[in-house]
Design goal:
- The protein is of the alpha+beta class.
- It is built from four helices and eleven strands.
- It folds into two domains: 130 residues, Hotdog Thioesterase (Thiol Ester Dehydrase, Chain A, Roll), CATH 3.10.129.10; 88 residues, Hotdog Thioesterase (Thiol Ester Dehydrase, Chain A).
- Helix content is 18%, strand content 39%.
- Strands 1, 2, 3, 4, 5, 6, 7, 8, 9, 10 and 11 form an eleven-stranded antiparallel sheet that branches.
- The longest helix has 19 residues.
- The two termini are 33 Å apart.
Amino acid sequence: MVYEKESYVAGSMCDPQLKLSVIAALELIEDSVTELLGGMGIDGVTAMNKYGAMWVFSKNNMQIMRRPKWLEKLHVRCYISKHSPLRIFVDTEIGSAAGEAFVRSRVEICALDLETGHIRKPVTLGFTEDMEKPEPMPGLDFSRFSKEGTSPVSSVTVRSTNLDYCSHTNNVEYVRFILDTFTSKELQSREIASLELHYLGQSYEGETLDIGRITGEGSDTYFISRGDEAAVACRIGWA
């Protein structure tokens, strides 16, 4: 199944440059993935109510070619590009109706049992191989991250508005925490070209998260932890 929808860059999706913000792009991708799974009858709410499990986003590799401006029309295309015994991979393209690609993303998803917390096979939540469209988009393979040389940057407390419907910190909120370590002037002075996220653990309301950074040439790598436990690794590539 290929899920497609038409949208546009609304005011609430814009940053101070009147372009689609990185946060809005991530939210549009996650909503599209959820709507794709909903059309197949294997979405997160169904997983909880029918199968006693929940889908979690374990990785996301987002490549940005151009951030569209306010009121530009968007065409979103989303499909399961491949799977493994324990994971499914969903590719999404946000582009123009004329075929220009603005943003591409690959999301890795796995399922966790609500009682045991153990990983469940997608086939136990209704996934079947005929749901896959085996045409992976290029340039979206996942990387490996090293924590060597990490320096502390900031700390943040998880609040009630940072939570999702599973009552843990929403995936996009981690990116917001990282981007909030910059001033708006700093973010406007350079463009984000890529964002790769590895979700390593859950965090919850009231917990303090520590943010560390490794500064590289053309990219910065961030690690978010809750005490001694890793929560997120994220690499930002700069244009």
